[in-house]
Amino acid sequence: MTGLTNETNGAGGAGGTDAAASTGVVAVVAAPWVRTRLRAAPGVAVALALLVAVTACLAAAFPRAVDRYEDAGLRRLLDDATARQTTVQLYAPQPGLELPQAEREQALRGAALRAAYGKVLAAVERPLEPDRAQSSYGVRTTNPGAALDPWLPRPTGLPARMSLTAQNGLADHARLRDGRLPRVRGAVTAATPEVEAAVTTATARTLRIKVGSVIHLPGVERAPLAVRVTGIVEPSEPDGSYWSAMPVLRKPSLIQIPTQGGPPDRYWLGALLLPPDAAPVLLGTAGKPERYWQLAPATASLTAHEVDRLSSAVAALESGPGLGRVRERVDPLADATTDLDDVLTAFDRLRSGIGPLVAVAAFGAGTVAAVVLLMAGGLAVDRRRAELALLRARGGSLRGVAGRLLAETAVVAVPAGALGLAVALLAVPGVRLAHAVAAAVAVTALACATLPVGAAFAHRAVRVHGGREDLASLRPSRRRTVAELTLLVLASGAVVALRRRGASGDQLVALAPVLVGVIAALVLVRLYPLPLRRLARPAGRLRGAVAHLSLARAGRTSTSTVLPLLALLTALTTAAFGGSVLAGVHDARDRAALLVTGADARIEAPHPLPADLPGQVRRASGVREVTPVSIAYEAQVGDGSGTEQEVVALVGVEPGAYGRLARRVGLGGFSGTELAVPAARGSSGTGSAATARAEKRVLPALASPAVAGRYGERPFAVRLEDGSQVTVRITAVRDLTPAVSDLDFLVVDRAGLPARPARPTALFVTGGHLDGGALRDAAGTGVEVRLRAEVRDGYVDSPLQSGAERIYTAAVAAGAGYAVLALLLALVRAAPERTALLARLRTMGLTRAQGRRLLVLEALPQALLAAAGGALTGWAAIRLLSPGIDLRAIALATPDSSSGGAPLRTDAVSLILPSLTVLALATGIAAVQAWWSGRRGSVRELRAGDSR
Fold it and tell me: Pick the residue with more confidence: 697 or 148?
């Protein structure tokens, strides 16, 4: 008792030292409290430090990991978008005709535009940061003029049109391939007869332009403008915004003009790159010149947490205060346009769909970690109950004892929390620091406060002696009952509110597993002792005391049972929810890929496939079956009463083989006899006679619901793409079919089609581990080969998706680890009492084998309770949240209506497997504890008053 006496003097003697000094009595020198405690229990201090460090590290790493994959997702989305979408285009018309001509020309020169560019940059709000290397400004013609030179290519006789653009920085963004860069000689005006220009290599190659070529464009009230090409340049960054914001600068486009019947007219549209100071010459053309400023965003500095502010900055520049400043400083008629806000909206929509799912895992794992910290503090309070009671009995104040316990814990927890934070900051780089620091501080504060608060609550009243530890109260205290009922009502109210309004994406949705776990833990802890007590009575009449003792002890109620049960239920619920989410994501991707391909592989061409191709494909590795199909995507259906025609996809199949394929993949299966045309199979002949017989025959057809609703069961004509016609009658209706996923369709026996439309244009391949390379080699050129596995892998396109999956998996794994630790802490807390019980029972004749069975049977009901409760709460959480969750956001890169919804469904494996794992782990730990206790002697456990 020496250590306890020194510690007691350190706590209770603090108030008596001054009194002893005043009376002349020599005071006892007390050892420092913190150092004494750390020396007395170094293992406990190390375990606490390790727990706090790991928890703080995980808590601090989580927000930085989320920021990291969200930032990567934003940058990927911006990089995948075209420069025309992400660039903010500001433009102003040419100076008004009321101004003097010299002033109008001066406003278009390089110096004036450069000054205006600086004013435009000053109007941009942060965090929108223009990339000055890719941003540009200049003057361009909005109405490209028709070139008067006949040597330029004219595909259908229309002259080529040329856009005149005087853009800054040509020398900095291009490499000279031939000639020299254009220059300005003297002051260029609207009447200047000739200017110099450059073209890109793509423009020169397509339009047959060479250095020295002269292109003439119509003028207004002047002679045609001559543009002499002095250089051919190669863009240094062709995909950058400088060149791609206006793609015509980089390469010419073949423009098609719709016509009334006959082939469409086409002409070439190219660009001539003038020096900036040559812009005034555009005033003398019919091109309607305008000034423009193109602001390319600096994507490297953009972060996901600034998306809302970034959207506001873009909106302000497009139609808000930013545009107002541009109009005030540059031109009152200036305007702006951009698709950057649409890109940001798409990112925010994807993030909003993924965020709630990740938050569920985060709140679940965080709750289990918090429960473990509380259990660790509760274990410390239990182990030091006698010591703390003695301190209170010897005059230690509640504040003084709690303060010393806080200092004792803080000395260990604060450095451990700082270490965990440092490891998280180094392991997961990021921009934001506040969230990581706040998470680590919260973990450290909880670890520091658990022991002193628990001790203050347990020893708020001074007791001379404690109660008997071998007795359990049959009825919980009124205070505990009121607290549990209050918590139960609050959690139930939150769940009811969540169920009524649906999963709206707020924090209440993320707390659903925790709320369900709280309700289940409180209810199950109160209910499960009742059947055990009923079973204990008949078990007492059985031979042997093991069954009766195990049921009697398992039926005792204890406040300490709630926390470990809550940890297990929350972890199991989160694991079941997460497993169902991941399984649903996999199923959604597989389903979407199946709708695209219709089978394990799809080989298709816009023309009839070679007759020997099905045989070659069958010989490829992994191929089990090949189903030929002819698809006419633009078949026209009409009732014959008018000119209006409806376009549907007509699919010609072999009914038996195609029906087997549809049943195997689950896309509108049918029996082959529903579409068979017996008369057609014995028919012979080719050419016009066969076509005439096919047009007179009425073919049974399988139709989509929309077509069946319009035409019913009456025969109607279908005109094919080659001009032939067949008559069909709908005999079956299916929502889906393997050949077509997003069009209305008709499926008929291709034996009843004319010879040319009956030739297969697609092959549907089924099999396992298909070799895409072998299939493509067999198909040859001009034929598209799509594998279901490749399409499915392509849906994981954004770092938002893959990052969310990794975070979710890590959070579920962390929650499972903390749940195991909670289970271990619960068993460690009960270990001394169980060991003493076995020692006493062994003195009464209980064998070691019976002792092991006793501990296993005692732990089994609670393990079964946790396993069954975990499966139940997991099912309840999924049912609660499934109406408001669509997994397409996390499953598919670009969700569309043809893929259908992807609702959250219960995954049986995710419900059962974690519960069975907990059951096996709990019984295994109890068996190991019983085996270890059996090897130790019982002398120390039988010492009176020895609680070590």
Answer: 148
Cβ–Cβ < 8 Å for 60, 430: no
Measuring CA to CA, how many Å separate 692 from each of 676, 685, 689, 701, 851? 19, 11, 5, 19, 91
Round to whole Å and give the CA distance between 228 and 267. Answer: 21
Cα separation, 499 vs 522, in Å, equals 20
3-state DSSP assignment of residue 295: strand
The secondary structure of 421-443 as a DSSP string is: HHHHHHHS--S--HHHHHHHHHH
Cα 373 to Cα 663: distance, rounded to the nearest angstrom:
54
Closest CA to 415 of 42, 64, 46: 46
Q: Residue 194 in 3-state DSSP?
A: strand
Indicate the range of 490-499, 650-659, 702-711 predicted with least confidence: 490-499
42 sits in which H/E element: helix 42-80
pLDDT number for residue 28? 46
Give the count of alpha carbons within 13 A of 158, CB side only.
Answer: 16
Contacts of 763 (CB under 8 A, 6+ apart): 602, 603, 604, 609, 613, 614, 617, 626, 627, 628, 629
Closest CA to 635 of 544, 782, 813, 761: 761
The span from the CA of 207 to the CA of 152, in Å, is 6
> To 5 degrees, how large is the angle CA 745–CA 749–CA 755?
105
Q: What is the per-residue pLDDT across 843-891, written as a single tens digit (0 to 9) for each?
A: 777 777 777 777 777 777 777 877 888 888 888 877 777 776 667 766 7
pLDDT, mean of residues 503-529:
71
Under a CB-based contact definition with an 8 Å cutoff, are residues 355 and 803 in contact? no
Q: What is the pLDDT of residue 270?
A: 92
Which is nearest to 851 in space by CA: 943, 919, 935?
935
Task: Give CA–CA dist 151/582, Å, rounded.
Answer: 62
Residue 173 token pair: 């963004």
> What are the strands, taking DSSP E only, across 244-288?
253-257, 265-274
Q: Quick one: CA dihedral 90, 96, 99, 104, positive or negative? A: positive
Q: Looking at per-residue confidence, does 492 or 785 come out higher? A: 785
How many alpha carbons fall within 13 Å on the CB side of residue 343?
24
CB 604, CB 783: distance < 8 Å = yes
**Coil, helix or strand at residue 200:** strand
> What's the mean pLDDT when you consider all of the chain?
79
Q: Is 898 helix (H, G, I), strand (E, B) or coil?
A: helix
Q: Are 401 and 388 in contact (CB under 8 A)?
A: yes
Tell me the mean pLDDT in the region 30-55.
79
Beta strand ranges found along 517-660 (DSSP E): 601-604, 623-638, 646-653
Instruction: Work out the pLDDT band at 3, boundaries 50, 70, 90.
Output: very low
Contact between 688 and 699 (Cβ < 8 Å) = no
Give the three-state DSSP class for 623: strand
Total number of residues shown for the chain:
948
Q: Which helix (H) or strand (E) holds 336?
A: strand 335-337
Distance, CA of 274 to CA of 196 (rounded, Å): 6
User: What average pLDDT does range 901-929 have in this prediction?
Assistant: 78
User: Which residues lie across from 766 on neighbouring strands?
Assistant: 625
pLDDT in tens, 726-744: 888 888 888 888 888 888 8
Q: Peptide bond before 127: cis, by omega within 30 degrees of 0?
A: yes
User: If you search the block for the tokens 């018309």, which residue do you land on?
Assistant: 93
Confidence of residue 269 (pLDDT cuts 50, 70, 90): very high
Element of type H or E holding 485: helix 478-501
- The span from the CA of 178 to the CA of 729, in Å, is 67
CA 477 to chain centre: 47
Cα–Cα distance for residue pair 708/701, rounded to 1 Å: 10
Please state the φ and ψ torsions of residue 189, each to the nearest 5 degrees. -125, 180
* Residues 559-569 pLDDT 10s: 556 677 777 78
